[in-house]
Design brief:
The protein is α/β, with parallel strands linked by helices and 492 residues long. It is built from 18 helices and 17 strands. Helix 13 links the parallel strand 9 and strand 10.
Length: 492
């Protein structure tokens, strides 16, 4: 029986065909049915055997290659690479300090642990990617291929900036196309903003806890973060004002909509009061809104920037969470006085983005496909959020508390006793479940042990299994063995 006949394609499943192919090949490599050195069929052969397009077969092989499962050589073919054992991967991960950059670097390694239930990373589910729809947008650019394979303007594709301007307007942000700067993802956007606003040694006010990627960026550029605690309504303004008076931070970083890692949002009154405080001290606010369109309630909250009458808010967003992270498309809306410097810094970092992907995304937006995609995936993500909350209620021991996210992919867990934290991260990996340790999101320890659980890329069944495994580990660390209670607000 040929290799391709060992694969089963279900066209009725929500999962994309290329992903189904890649996952089955990974499983066969992991269990030894495809040993190291095995030559896989050519793209043409695989496509013919499974009755899929060559693009689908190529995407499957591309995912396998990017994950380190196979290697392809022009003229020779595609071959299986030796799959490391789970113990080898965990040993390598255990050798790393649990710092923001190390935890982010562990993503590829952890993803190769066979049988792992990963709740560690705030990312969308590849099975829900609109692959075929976006491929149509790419193919529509064939007539402009010559131009799109050249260098582009550092500010980004003009057609994309027009479409982003329209989308921003629908969310209450008045921004002309010339006021939009396209970047290579939200990470580069935050790096450009940091380089524009802060020099080495400058203070930057950040939420506590805060997105670990921002801490990595600040550390790389030599800026000094100061944590401002959260309460039930968002960043605490009394603490922020003390930081402003004492340290004169160059900006405040905040995620008003579905904060990472807590998943919570800022109240309407707190937003109004924050803008008033910023106006009084002329404090620049950097708003990260990458989760803003991933809302699970009836009425989504508008961005902080939509209420910015003093032009103090620098707005950052990206396609990574709402669409596909591999597009590497982010964007910034900033006050006019900052725009030239930001464009110059963006150009110095990588000259310009990928014109073909930017134009394809513009086409995708113009055809209304993002709105259609969001209507399709939001019920899935809401179901997964609910599955996580249900599993926590059932599996967690007494004293464990957690937030109830109204959007995004993140949930913040607080354990009752710091002694329970001893080597929990590595022990959980050995038991087949991954989370992100809370210390990576904190400027300074707060006396509690936290962890972040993410639900976007896991099925409800995998979420229940992962939380149950984690609950068993925690129950082994405490003598009290009955259900915990949900907490709607993050701990300060």
């Amino acid at each position: 029986m040929s290799f391709a006949h060992l694969l089963e394609i279900d066209r009725q499943r929500g999962q994309s065909l290329y992903r189904q192919i890649a996952e089955q090949i990974k499983l066969q490599i992991s269990d030894g049915r495809l040993p190291a050195g095995t030559q896989l069929p050519t793209v043409r052969q695989l496509a013919h055997s499974l009755n899929v397009t060559r693009a689908t077969a190529q995407s499957a092989y591309g995912e396998l290659q990017s994950g380190g499962w196979v290697e392809s050589t022009v003229g020779r073919g595609t071959f299986v690479i030796a799959a490391p054992q789970n113990e080898d991967i965990i040993t390598a991960v255990m050798g790393n300090q649990l710092t923001p950059d190390r935890l982010m670097g562990n993503m590829q390694r952890i993803g190769r642990i066979v049988g792992l239930r990963s709740l560690a990373y705030a990312e969308p589910d590849p099975a829900l990617f609109p692959t075929e729809e976006f491929w149509s947008s790419l193919m529509a650019q064939a007539h402009d291929a010559t131009d799109l394979f050249q260098y582009s303007a550092p500010q980004g594709d003009e057609m994309l900036r027009v479409e982003l301007s329209v989308m921003l307007g629908e969310r209450g942000i008045a921004a002309l196309p010339d006021e939009v700067l396209v970047t290579s993802g939200a990470t580069q956007a935050l790096a450009v903003v940091t380089q524009t606003l802060a020099a080495r040694g400058d203070y930057v006010a950040v939420e506590q806890p805060v997105y670990l990627g921002l801490l990595h960026i600040l550390g790389t550029h030599g800026a000094r973060p100061i944590g401002v605690p959260l309460d039930s309504e968002g960043v605490r303004l009394d603490c922020l004002e003390q930081v402003i008076v004492q340290h004169h931070p160059k900006f405040l970083y905040t995620t008003p909509n579905f904060q990472n890692p807590t998943g919570t949002g800022m109240s309407a009154q707190r937003r109004t009061d924050l803008l008033a405080l910023a106006a009084r001290y002329r404090l620049t606010i950097v708003e990260d809104d990458v989760y803003g369109q991933l809302h699970y309630g009836d009425t989504p909250a508008s961005p902080l920037k939509a209420h910015d009458t003093e032009d103090l808010v620098v707005y950052v967003n990206a396609a990574s969470k709402v669409l596909m992270p591999g597009l590497r498309i982010g964007y910034i809306v900033a006050p006019f006085a900052m725009q030239d410097r930001m464009i110059s810094i963006r150009q110095a970092n990588d000259l310009a983005g990928a014109p073909l992907l930017q134009r394809a995304f513009a086409n995708f937006l113009h055809r209304g496909r993002l709105k259609i995609h969001l209507r399709r995936v939001l019920p899935h993500y809401r179901e997964r959020r609910d599955a996580l909350l249900q599993a926590l209620q059932y599996a967690m021991p007494h004293g464990v508390e957690w937030t109830r996210p109204e959007g995004g992919f993140c949930c913040w867990i607080t354990l009752p006793d710091d002694q329970m934290s001893s080597d929990l991260y590595h022990e959980a990996l050995q038991h087949g479940v991954a989370f992100t340790p809370g210390d990576a999101f904190l400027i300074k320890p707060d006396g509690h042990y936290h962890l972040r659980l993410c639900f976007g890329s896991s099925t409800p069944e995998a979420i229940h299994e992962g939380v149950n495994r984690l609950g068993e580990l925690l129950r082994e660390r405490t003598t009290v063995r009955f259900r915990g209670r949900a907490r709607d607000l993050p701990l300060v």
